[in-house]
Design goal:
It is built from 13 helices and 13 strands. The protein has helices at about 1-25, 35-45, 60-70, 85-90, 125-135, 170-175, 190-200, 210-225, 230-245, 265-280, 285-300, 305-310, 315-325; strands spanning about 50-55, 70, 75-80, 90-95, 100-105, 115, 140, 145, 155-160, 175-180, 210, 255-260, 305. The longest helix has 25 residues, at about 1-25. The protein is globular.
């Protein structure tokens, strides 16, 4: 195994240079927000969809657009509104009188990167139209199934659900997102730099530096990162601790969790931990990698009870307690 790791190290180093170019281009537009940018790149490499939550004005949409601009791939933005229809997203069949037949007009979902902006401002029917696309990488229009391009990634932004005019996403759809981020305000120095850079008409321009093939190569290298059986056990223990808290000496969480994380959480924890190691320049996963990505993978997969809400607890509080208690190998 050591020989395999030694062989992988130079490839990871080479890919790190590619990632560095990508970060430099994104940094032309995005000031700070290193956490959000890193997670966007992680989703890209791990081949998983990402949900970004934050109040308006925190550069969520700008960050996604910056990543898309730095790539030689297709990009489409869909502004979700209460009157949006599923056909506006996936496309529809159009009748052609001159040919006496129907033709398929594809929607914006047929792109490599799809920005679903303010996804929770549209009703459930439109949100559910994304389900097949996100999970199966295909859509059905009429009686025909159409394969989506590769790579295919949904990058969704949402406003906090307490805001007016928002609809909570169905649990089945939220579970399709590999990561859910919570974005906060920049600090004072970052905000001053944002002011200097953006308070004029001449905005920085991003140049594309990576292709779809470059992304696929990164994914292949990240897939080969070594995941020790002990770390696999740790991942499974963390997920099971959200379902059976008492078994892991977390009795205080028993009445706070209605539903624990699904098996998809175990898969995504393993995938993102590998990418975290890859982005850190390592050919093997450590338990700290799992802890680093854990909150973003788990926070939207744990359904809290009314008792937890009464105590003003969040899923982040529960996840932190799990990581503090479960034994680390």
């Amino acid at each position: 195994m050591s020989g395999t790791l030694e062989d992988l190290a130079p490839e990871i180093e080479a890919q790190a240079q590619q990632l560095s170019k990508l970060r430099q281009e994104i940094a032309k537009v995005i000031v700070g927000q290193a956490y959000m940018v890193d997670r966007l790149l992680m989703a890209l490499i791990a081949d998983g969809h990402i949900l970004i939550e934050g109040i308006p004005g925190l550069a969520k949409t700008t960050a996604v657009k910056a990543v898309a601009d730095a790539l030689h791939t297709g990009f489409a933005r869909v502004q979700f509104t209460p009157d949006l229809l599923p056909a506006d997203l996936i496309g529809t069949e159009i009748y052609r009188p001159q040919h006496l037949d129907f033709m398929v007009k594809t929607g914006p979902i047929f792109s490599n990167l799809v920005l679903a902006d303010e996804i929770n401002r549209s009703p459930a029917k439109v949100q559910s139209a994304l389900l097949e696309a996100m999970q199966e990488r295909q859509v059905t229009i009429g009686d025909q199934t159409h394969t989506l391009p590769d790579p295919f990634l949904v990058l969704a932004t949402q406003n906090p659900i307490e805001q007016e005019g928002t609809y909570p996403l169905p649990e089945a759809q939220v579970d399709r997102f590999m990561l859910k981020l919570k974005v906060g305000y920049p600090d004072k120095e970052e905000e001053k730099e944002i002011l200097r850079r953006m308070a004029n008409r001449h905005k920085p321009q991003i140049e594309p530096v990576l292709t779809a093939e470059d992304i696929k190569t990164m994914r292949e290298v990240a897939d080969r990162v070594y995941l020790d059986p002990k770390v696999e056990d740790y991942i499974v223990d963390v997920v099971f601790a959200t379902r059976e808290p008492a078994v892991y000496k977390l009795e205080k969480l028993e009445n706070l969790i209605d539903y624990g994380a699904s098996p998809r959480a175990s898969i995504y924890l393993a995938q993102t931990a590998k990418v975290q190691a890859f982005m850190s320049g390592r050919a093997y996963v450590t338990p700290q990698d799992v802890k680093t990505v854990g909150p973003d993978v788990l926070r939207h997969r744990i359904l809290l009870s009314y008792e937890a809400e009464a105590q003003d607890l969040t899923s982040d509080d529960v996840v932190q307690e799990v990581f503090n208690t479960v034994d680390v190998p």
